[in-house]
Design a protein that fits this description.
Helix content is about 20%, strand content about 25%. The protein is an alpha+beta fold. The protein has 2 domains: about 30-45 and about 80-225, Lipocalin (Beta Barrel), CATH 2.40.128; about 295-590, Ribonuclease Z/Hydroxyacylglutathione hydrolase-like (Metallo-beta-lactamase, Chain A). Strands 1-2-3-4-5-6-9-10-11 form a 9-stranded mixed β-barrel. The longest helix has 23 residues, at about 525-545.
Length: about 600
Amino acid sequence: MSTISRAGVVALAAALFGFPAFAQIDLSGEWNPLFHEDQPERIPGPEIGDYLGLPISDAARERGDIWDADILTLPEHQCKPHPSDYGVRGPANLRIWKEVDTATQEIIAWHTHISWQAPERTIYMDGRPHPPEYAPHTWQGFSTGQWDGDILTITTTHLKIGWIRRNGIPRSDRATVTEHWIRHGDHLTIVTEVNDPVYLTEPFVRSTDFVMDLHQQIAPYPCESVEEVTLEKGDVPNHLPGTNPFLNEFAQRHQLPEAAARGGAITMYPEYRLNMKLASNPVTVNRPMPDQDTGTIHILSLPGNAKGSVYMLVGAGANITVQIGKDGVLLVDAGRASETDQVLAAIRSLTDKPIHYILDTAADPDRVGGNEKLSKAGSTITGGNVAGANAGWAADIVAHENVGSTLSAAPKGSGATVIPADGWPRDMYFGDQKDLYFNNEAVQLFHQRAAHSDGDSLVFFRRSDVISAGGIFTPGYYPVINVNQGGSINGEIAALNRILDLTVPADKEEGGTYVIPGHGRLCDEADVVEYRDMVTIIRDRIQDMVNKGMTLEQVKAAKPTYDYDPEYGTTSGAWTTDMFVEAAYRSLKK
């Protein structure tokens, strides 16, 4: 034998003694939580008004102040698991196991199971990228890991809206979470850092400890929602600002200065005790709703895809739903006229079958602008359920009659968006519902009176279990309510509740029926629930102000949306927070 490199020696030793050259510590096992001074928060639950040590903004504090625990009695809230950044905080008996590639013996992923609500999580170790922003968010989010020595560092994105503390302090769906898992013998420490540009003014860090339990047996945790209390349909329990009678109890019980209990970044540091005061952490909002004219059309295949034949196109000014099957192509909305060539190219990348239907959910230019060109690129089905004068025409355009009335009466002139007559709906329905059967699937259009406008339709693909919501639902932004075109905030809430009537979630309030919004990422029922809650709570506040005889200027000055603005508001663009408040006020005054 001549020479052998140091690397060769290490590799030879690894082969002889059965361990990889760069081994990391094994995290596998059954773990029981250790409760120390944070037991009251983690098991009985935090007290109302306890925001001590949280780097929250003023808006987050206001969200905590109006929170009513009765909201958890709503069936749609009962089976939600803790998100992954909070999951280890509850009664969290934890199981960790690894998935190993047989050929390479490399760890592909770590998996976890937690006793409370039995959520399971995957932490990918194979270097895969995080999904695009329009991909759905989940309770566990999308996690990737890498080793820093013997510490597993995990980055998580795509989380649903959750909480920093379970007494109403929210964590937004734009947060990113970094975790460090550290094993020292039979003890496991998980250090969690939450970065939330919406509700935190600084990163929030906490640690949670576990101990190995060789005899642990985690029981199953089935969950079925029930009607715990009787509420009027659509009620969302909440306290109007300034009316929560329980906020001072925590400070009084523990003899703390009220300002300290109210939280804020300064309450995290020892220096605060020397000069206790409440710092203001206002939120600057300037995040206009994107017009989504990106120049590039992205195609998202729905999870489970029956879904197999339904896709979401992103980037045409508004989301477009594409259903493909043996009969051809059906579209829900057509996007802006400027993006039609790219939309058609995206459809042709999926299928060469003809476009036969375009279903318009409203008369907005970002929904009907592409009607004419996409319709002429397709054809109407002759015979069958389409007959007479329509036979041989371009693809059929279907909408509620109010969409046709709005387009035909649109003003002509400088700056006006004019839809050519060939882009108007030719097949209009006049009642509350229209049914189609296409590609072996029932497709139902439900007219929602006076919601975003007077012509809104929800489109429900029954076999695929997918709803196209149009402008009624735009996660991340306040709903556009066109009062001059018959829209109203109460009609908007009724439409959101209609979506919730149609959706059925899969296990743990996730997946199941998917909802394609007018703008933004793919959603499910839990996302619509959060949105419905927000719109309802703001409606309740403005209605209270209207009942008191307040003027529009007084209502705006009272800032009824203040605590939701970081998540949904904007001070510039085509639809601002002030415009939303004015639309809600005007519709309630009617």
